[in-house]
């Protein structure tokens, strides 16, 4: 409670983890997290019901346009139903937009899109998932979560526009939606033409303001600051990462629509960034508030300072 008011499972509540075989659910890890959270007096986020990754093997061989709706609703009823009333917010749909795929509306060409497509006339799997989630756990905030919307470059701008258009369409269709999740996997010293203090700014602020105008909350759901472009020297890296935490949090916390900030992991010891693209020199990333020895880093101090400007978890 001293360090965090809210937790999220990195992988343990994804589709493949909770329904590894069709119709047979596995809850050991998620149950563990919920009981830890309850004991500790902290909240839990649900991540996630719909994603193009972390699908079980049987999805490809067994799911068709004819049975996909039933599979999706059954999954949400089983997983969402088990934890109903105990979830702060559910990432109902994660990363549905990828304008580079060239589909109408910028929709990602995902396994869900193939069987229950979002088209010009239907919101497909997105509408089914959000409606089921609301029915199953009416107390949880329902979130559309995505990445690549944070920076000032043109790709981020296109992504923001496509995501906002999708959310607007959902609202027009009466699809239940409470919040936009901005993952916030960002880079220390990125976009050097602007300098780190300008890498995240008006575009991001505009998107948050737009979400607020639509009556949505905004959650910062997966914040981490990779140090891939930074030198090996640890104090220099830590300073760059901390400066980016400060600059980014200052931008997002300036808007009251932002009601939660979560980092993606707690300690550098277990960060996904070392297993993803990582640093060229193979040094471990120093991207989170606690280092590999679980000691607070300058990023921790930066985060605390930023959060103290607002009463937020
Ligand atoms: C990542 C996990 O951190 C990794 O352990 C896993 O191998 C792949 O998924 N956006 C998301 C998260 O919404 O679910 C991803 O988590 C990171 C990017």
Name its key features:
alpha/beta, eight-stranded parallel beta sheet, 15% strand, 10 helices, 37% helix, binds (3S,4R)-3-hydroxy-2-oxopiperidin-4-yl beta-D-xylopyranoside, 8 strands, 313 residues
Offer a quick outline of the entry.
This protein is an alpha/beta fold and 313 residues long. It is built from ten helices and eight strands.
Describe the structure.
The chain has 10 helices and 8 strands. By secondary structure, the chain is an alpha/beta fold. Helix 9 (234-253) runs parallel beside helix 10. It is globular and about 55 Å long. (3S,4R)-3-hydroxy-2-oxopiperidin-4-yl beta-D-xylopyranoside binds at residues 10-11, 94, 147, 183, 222, 272. The site of (3S,4R)-3-hydroxy-2-oxopiperidin-4-yl beta-D-xylopyranoside (XIL) has 7 residues, from loops.
- Total DSSP E strands: 8
Total number of helical segments?
10
The distinct ligands, each listed once, are: (3S,4R)-3-hydroxy-2-oxopiperidin-4-yl beta-D-xylopyranoside
Beta strand %: 15-25%
Helix content: 25-40%
Distance from N terminus to C terminus (CA atoms, Å) equals 9 Å
Q: What is the global morphology?
A: globular
List the SSEs and their pairings.
Layout: E1 6-8, H1 15-18, H2 28-40, E2 43-50, H3 57-62, H4 68-82, E3 87-94, H5 111-115, H6 124-136, E4 141-146, H7 154-172, E5 179-182, E6 185-187, H8 202-213, E7 217-226, H9 234-253, E8 258-263, H10 298-307
Parallel strand pairs: 1-2, 2-3, 3-4, 4-5, 5-7, 6-7, 7-8
Helix pairs in contact: 4-6, 7-8, 9-10
This protein binds (3S,4R)-3-hydroxy-2-oxopiperidin-4-yl beta-D-xylopyranoside (XIL).
Residues 10-11, 94, 147, 183, 222, 272 line the site of (3S,4R)-3-hydroxy-2-oxopiperidin-4-yl beta-D-xylopyranoside.
């Amino acid at each position: 409670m001293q360090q965090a008011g809210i937790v999220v499972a990195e992988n343990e509540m994804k589709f493949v983890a909770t329904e590894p075989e069709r119709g047979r659910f596995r809850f050991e890890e998620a149950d563990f997290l919920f009981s830890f959270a309850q004991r500790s007096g902290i909240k839990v986020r649900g991540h996630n019901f719909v994603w193009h990754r972390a699908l079980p093997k049987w999805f490809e061989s067994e799911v068709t346009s004819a049975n996909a709706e039933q599979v999706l609703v059954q999954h949400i009823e089983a997983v969402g139903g088990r934890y109903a009333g105990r979830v702060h917010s559910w990432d109902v749909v994660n990363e549905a937009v990828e304008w580079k795929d060239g589909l109408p509306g910028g929709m990602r060409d995902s396994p869900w899109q193939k069987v229950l497509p979002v088209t010009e006339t239907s919101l497909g799997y997105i509408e089914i998932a959000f409606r089921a989630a609301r029915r199953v756990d009416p107390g949880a905030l329902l979130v559309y979560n995505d990445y690549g919307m944070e920076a000032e470059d043109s790709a981020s701008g296109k992504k923001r526009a496509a995501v906002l258009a999708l959310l607007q369409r959902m609202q027009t269709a009466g699809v239940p939606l409470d919040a936009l999740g901005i993952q916030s996997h960002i880079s220390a010293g990125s976009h050097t033409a602007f300098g780190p203090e300008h890498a995240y700014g008006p575009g991001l602020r505009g998107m948050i303001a737009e979400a607020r105008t639509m009556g949505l909350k905004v959650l910062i759901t997966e914040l981490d600051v990779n140090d891939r472009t930074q030198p090996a020297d640890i104090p220099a890296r830590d300073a760059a990462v901390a400066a980016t935490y400060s600059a980014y949090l200052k931008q997002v916390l300036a808007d009251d629509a932002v009601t939660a900030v979560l980092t993606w992991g707690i300690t550098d010891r277990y960060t996904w960034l070392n297993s993803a693209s990582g640093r060229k020199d193979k040094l471990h990333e120093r991207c989170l508030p606690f280092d590999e020895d679980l000691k607070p880093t300058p990023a921790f101090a930066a985060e605390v300072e930023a959060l103290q400007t607002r009463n937020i978890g």
